[in-house]
Amino acid sequence: MRRILANGTLVTPEGLRRADLALEGEKIVEIAAHIEPGLTDVVEDVSGCWVFPGFIDAHTHLQCWTGMDWTADSFETGTRAAACGGTTCIVDYATADRGVTMDEALAEWHRRAEGGSGCTANYGFHMAIAEWGEDSPGQMRRMREAGVSSFKTYLAYDHLRLSDAETLRCLEVVRDLDAVLCVHCENGDVVNELQRRVLASGVTGPEGHPLSRPAEAEADAVSRLLYLAQIAGAKVNVVHLSTELGLLAVRAARARGQQGIYVETCPQYLTLDDTRYLEAGDDGFAGAKYVMSPPLRKPRDVRALREAVLAGEVDSIATDHCSFNLQGQKDRGRDDFTRIPNGGPGIEHRPAVMATTFEGQLGPEELCRLLAEGPARVFGLWPERGRLAVGAAADVCVWDPSARWTISAATQHQAVDYTPWEGFEAHGRAHLVYVGGELVARDGEPCGPTPGRYVAR
User: Where are the transmembrane segments (predicted)?
Assistant: First the structure.
């Protein structure tokens, strides 16, 4: 049996194309002006819709212990929510905490993803490295053999960060493995000192969070990372870029001819600013919803990043989905903002928020580059994923640009009690979503099996 998507506008690497597309098994098997259905074929008329390769979210934290609490979303709930929004593949951050080998961490993340009732979307793993030892290069080689083609290090958080010397050694191994290093760029010493000062000044609420993590702390770390990467000759991905100053550091490195620099930003840094920390809500603590790192920034930073997206300076838009409930989790830090679990939800709403925010500025081809093709190319999923072509994976999102709906926690599938985009009027919606050739969501609601599987990269 084939599934035929008829009369849609296909978003392909060669441009927009009015054509039919057929899925069979886990592959795209035919693209033609007209595909004549057989007796057992299922035909969906997708007139007026854009047919995208399934979107890829290459920055998620599902079923993860962060040092304060477990995230609200499991792999089961997180991948279901992702698929409802049009995302058919995630790349989650497995983490080798101190005292844990990368082999042990990868095995643990496989157990988490394979537990429960299964994953709706496909999944791969980055490997985050929290300590460096003599065996670290060997462990990284084993990760590469297991289909992990990207790693992560931190320049902040005392329990996670590596020194500059260790980061350089890691970058050299990344170079030799033809891998990519994703880096959380904040100056950890500066953040620690400013947190102490802000609390000592009597500021304990969520508004203290951005005060302790200024734009300069990000820009310093971005610049430092890029110089280290230049020394090593390694490819790096600057994750969740949030500031104009950080962007200027990227531009400076590119201007001096440095290659292998990839930039990721997130919907929250393109749509929300630091005035959200002053929200009171019913209990005076609503600003805690936006405690994530890096924090929301100034309106000028939002404008600068939007301009960078439009100029093609950003390679991918991911979510950094790391969900915690406001009630029972984030509110534990009511008297000390440093005890509010860091992170926010977004895995379900990224495509709709971006399509709406850039309506009339980014067409379907540009959205495809940022949400599917870009992450596929950077993280070793191309050409099987991130494109519509015969032989590519049967992961497809049929997008209805005429749909109008309102984002709300009351109707979302993320297992968390709020959304940063409550009341957001979305223009466009995932109409049909296929994973491995199976229909898994229709008009924002789950409707099928859980065919998601591990994707080696």
Answer: none
